[in-house]
Input
Amino acid sequence: MASSFLTHSIISPQSPISNQTSQTPSINQLRIPKSPVFSTQLKTIFTPNCASSEIDTISTDDTPIELKYPAFPTVVDINQIRDILPHRFPFLLVDRVIEYNPGVSAVGIKNVTINDNFFPGHFPDRPIMPGVLMVEAMAQVGGVVMLQPEVGGSRENFVFAGVDKVRFRKPVVAGDTLVMRMTLTKLQKRFGIAKMDGKAYVGGEVVCEGEFILAMGNTVN
Output
């Protein structure tokens, strides 16, 4: 009860403290009787912003940076990807699949390095991954979903048929890891047409997104 009254007296317009100048009163000026409950409240009210537990954690964490971040998991490795997709160098743009939901979605990665063959020309002084190759890489991740028994696609009769609403949000440069999620949204087996939503990320931020159309079976003849 006493702590409730004292708390009200601090914030009330009738309080003598509120009628003072804008100078912030110190704890000693408040002359508040000692109370375990209220002392806990004071710690909350008067804790300086600089006393951040996050800063303390960062400063006391001596773990080397190379040990802090685990590697992406491997669900489908590069040899298995080569068995699924018909693409080969220099147009195989998926290095690893890190998540796969049969007949639904896949997440693949492309490690973008300065040794990629498109960088000498795009651009010599500023290595940026071409947007069309980002879209191609995403379509290949979609191919990993489509060329599985759950969907029934054929490696011999499978093409990237269209793209819509593509947006490039940020440039992808040498040294980035492009993480691409492709999700099947509509499948017309009778016509061999699949529609997919795709998003690509670098460091958790979207760099490219769009809607994809993939064709398989007799539609490509």
